[in-house]
Amino acid sequence: MSTQELNNALSASKLFTMGAAHGSVSVAGGWGQTAGHGPFTSLYGLGVDQVLEYKVVIADGSLKVANKVSNPDLFWALRGGGGGTFGVVVEATIKAYQDVPITFQEFWINTTTGANNPELFDAYSYLHTQFPSLVSKGVTGYYYLWNGGIDVKMMTTGKDSGEANVRRIWQPIWDKLNASEALNVKMSLLITYPNFKAFFDGRFGPIESMPDMDFKQRLNKRHGPGGDGNEAVPKPEGIVPLDSRLLGAEHFASPNLTQALEQANPAALGVPMGGLQGHLVAGGKVMDPDDDTSVLPAWRKAYVHVIGIKTLGMRGVDSLRRLAPGSGAYANEADPQDTDWKRTFWGSNYVRLSKIKTKYDPEMVFWTTPGVNADLMEARSEGRVCRTATPAVAMARKTAPKNDNTNALKVDFGGTSNPQTEAGDVEGIKPEGGENGL
Ligand SMILES: Cc1cc2nc3c(=O)[nH]c(=O)nc-3n(C[C@H](O)[C@H](O)[C@H](O)COP(=O)(O)OP(=O)(O)OC[C@H]3O[C@@H](n4cnc5c(N)ncnc54)[C@H](O)[C@@H]3O)c2cc1C
Q1: Among 6, 8, 95, 200, which is most buried by a count of CB atoms within 10 Å?
Q2: What is the pLDDT of residues 91-124, one digit of tens each?
């Protein structure tokens, strides 16, 4: 079941759960077993933090109950070790929360010339320095660096919702940005939804309206989204080559922050349309979990996950690796060929995860890559997955073995983006509705 199918079912009970920012992502698979972020995870915790119990079929075919008292090692591993690794989860018990009103705003920080200038990167960097304080005020959301502008989409919920409160929180930031003659802050949307379902439907479109959802789901995940995602059979467009890093307050305080962000911008790598995706989905409750889980420990110190593009054989966010060498990346939105993949995706939890994997699946019935103990196996050209000939060679590998999916994204990186809106400036907020997608 997808996270939004679950939330739709819960809506009549005035409840909602943590879920992904897309209607097709499943509750207890790759999302809920790797970390799982979403629009409100900084307020309620990651996907792995939501789980109270799994029922899981392990490699020997037996059904295990995994919770804090029954098979606690398996429970710990399933909460962060990655999907497709420890068994097939057939049931999960997760936390639900009382529905809340949600205020959504979108504003743009544009350059006055429409082209990149140093002030744009200063503004992008300045936004990051504000995130710890914003999260403490209940703000969460997404922000995108394009050529000539930054698109900021943020939410507040419950007692922090309401348009007046949003103005109160953001006005000093808008004033500071508008003080630069090179920048112009434009608000395009400020709207309050009564509950989670109304928010999700308003921002992403109701998933009931997506025909043949299951089929699309599978194709989208395997090949990347096709077209606008609303056609009955999506056009496979290939795997998007991402590269990413989790960043926290210590990185925002670095004198190298602005330069590192600017260098991670895909435009600096020859991708004219630019495009750095920032997810402000951590901090807050993600930093203060109720339980010990196997999720990458860097999540517990992070505020944002910044995602760039890996292109032309270059590592897209190397500058962020230099900025945050001890951090890591979310395995579900990262470069699968990261050269330090065990540490990048699982950090200090990898060794214990590897032992638990060996205990529950010594014959490697379940294999996913990058995944725990993935290097014990390899995908052969004839389409079989076999034990790596010599374990010593396997362990010495720098990158995780490749899988058999060679359908890389074929994309024209030319052209421009920054679809700047025509909406009013921040003094004259003009509520509008109907746009789909965060
Ligand atoms: C359009 C889109 C939007 C996304 N948005 C977000 C987002 O907002 N937040 C976020 O955190 N991530 C997001 N992601 C990334 C997402 O978390 C990963 O793609 C994740 O792997 C999806 O998990 P799934 O179970 O839905 O997918 P699948 O492709 O079905 O599975 C992924 C892996 O988990 C395994 N698996 C699936 N089900 C089970 C099960 N029941 N038991 C054991 N293993 C299982 C599979 O074998 C596979 O290895 C997004 C991805 C896409 C394509």
Answers
A1: 200
A2: 999 999 999 999 999 999 999 988 889 999 999 9
